[in-house]
Amino acid sequence: MSVLVYTETEKGKFKKNAFEVASYANAVAQQLGTTVTAIAFGADNAEELGTYGVSKVLNVAEASLSDFNARAFALSIAQAVSSEEAKVVLLSSSTDSKFLAGILAGKLSAGYAPNVVAAPETTEPFIVKRTAFSNKGFAHTQIDTDIKIVGVSNNAFGVVENPTSADVAAFSPQINESDFSTKSVEVDKVVGKATIADADIVVSGGRGLKGPENWGLIEELAEVLGAATACSKPVSDLGWRPHSEHVGQTGKPVASNLYIAIGISGAIQHLAGVSASKVKVVINTDPEAPFFKAADYGIVGDAFEVVPELTEKLKEFKAQNA
Amino acid sequence: MKILVCISNVPDTTSKINFTDDDTKFDTNGVQFVINPNDEFGLTRAMWFKEKQGATVHVATVGEATTEPTIRKALAIGADEAIRVNAAPTDGYFVAQQLAEVIKSGGYDLIIAGRESIDYNGGMVPGMIAAMLDMNFVNTCISLEIEGENATAVREIDGGKEKIATSLPLIIGGQKGLVEESDLRIPNMRGIMMARQKKLNVVEAVGGTQATKDVKFERPAPKGAVKLVDSANIDELVNLLHNEAKVI
């Protein structure tokens, strides 16, 4: 029996969330008195996971499984669960992991708790704390099935080093041609820019910016900070910015270290979606804007004056601290 | 084409969330329930398939009789028929099992569910159904076109999007993008009157097991007061973010 963790890669390299979910797996394994096995698809440096307490890595090398396919990956993980006799399976909260989680849970007849923010409170019964009601609350969820699947929230547990040496073994799942009946035709992805899902800092704009032509303000600030850009729901509904940047209850959740909201009043739905961010800064002309009640730091002022100056000050700061 | 839209009955997005019974239950007192927003985008896309491609649209929910106003709203928007599985939706696994039964007996070509419900945020039901029925599945779906048996879908991925080719029968986990916010329909009087005549079949749950249960709820810890920085002293904000918050 071991704990199995699915560690995601991007072009052969582990994603940041792979180290966080491996760290979480190690905490679970210690509670259960067992070891961590990871499954990766085409990892170049699989032994790297040893740093986070993984003692065995099943590395899938099949060319047909080099690109993400939810069903094929879920079936592969299910086979690893059975060969390792794993009772607990850990996934991240990435879009891909959430895509395959339901399939995996269905195939294994396993209970699944997503958006988990802390190591299990108890393992008998198995109870985890997770966000619910779109971050307006937490649920303590008990998983009663023999196999348990836990989806770990981004940036909640953190990356914890626990060096051990990882044995890397090739793993060849048996997947049929018919399991690839949803085929990727085209991927359109921003490269070289932080994404909302894994950025440490997110800079977000609202209707206070008055129009899409003013988004240079947001982008310049984001560039200095190496941040991802985001927007409020009205901005995406007005077509000023693409849907993929919409953060909030019906958009993407944000769990960054720093969230800077510019010209966003802070509707309850928006605040819910960004509440998992550790530090929130608001810049708004209206001192009565609800966001001031949810933020850690605030500036009452005109974004068109404050933001360029903040960008300049941060440039100076970065230059001094480089 | 026969479409089933799966609907969750959820608190309106503006709801304040409170718990009752020693924090073991969600407090529904004063809460307005609506069609889950992710499901409503899917329902509206289904209406497009009905009007442009002659599809038949059914809606299904797993819920007690109190959910009927939400289902009637889906009928008023234009769904042809509704199915209510008469049981409390105890967890995602139970709901998926119930909906899988509805799908098996209904012979649907396309199942549209939401990416997640905005209350319990499980996000697992469509994937579980796909596994139980070995159906094609696309999650976080933001665009869907059907031509004969072939489907072209676009799904959101972290940092972009991916175009996917697949075929019916298909289940999707939908969200905004399937249609725009401005495409959503408010039922008109005629729709509401017609909905009263439409079939709402109540079926009993078929066995099914619960895999998880929420044993306790908690509200987020209250937030400390915001620290205001004067707009003439932006250096101070940089200083606080670096030395106090330690995020830059």
From TrEMBL, chain A:
The keyword Nucleotidyltransferase does not apply. SMART domains: ETF. GO terms for molecular function: electron transfer activity; flavin adenine dinucleotide binding. Binds 1 FAD per dimer. InterPro entries: DHS-like_NAD/FAD-binding_dom (IPR029035), ETF_a/b_N (IPR014730), ETF_a/FixB (IPR001308), ETF_asu_C (IPR014731), Rossmann-like_a/b/a_fold (IPR014729). GO terms for biological process: fatty acid beta-oxidation using acyl-CoA dehydrogenase. Residues 3-184 form the Electron transfer flavoprotein alpha/beta-subunit N-terminal domain. Its cofactor is FAD. FAD binds at R207, G263, I264, S265, G266, A267, I268, Q269, H270, N284. Keywords: Electron transport, FAD, Flavoprotein, Transport. Belongs to the ETF alpha-subunit/FixB family. This is Electron transfer flavoprotein subunit alpha/FixB family protein. It comes from Poritiphilus flavus.
Automatic annotation (TrEMBL), chain B:
GO terms for molecular function: electron transfer activity. SMART domains: ETF. Keywords: Electron transport, Transport. The keyword tRNA processing does not apply. Pfam families: ETF (PF01012). Residues 23-211 form the Electron transfer flavoprotein alpha/beta-subunit N-terminal domain. Belongs to the ETF beta-subunit/FixA family. This is Electron transfer flavoprotein subunit beta.
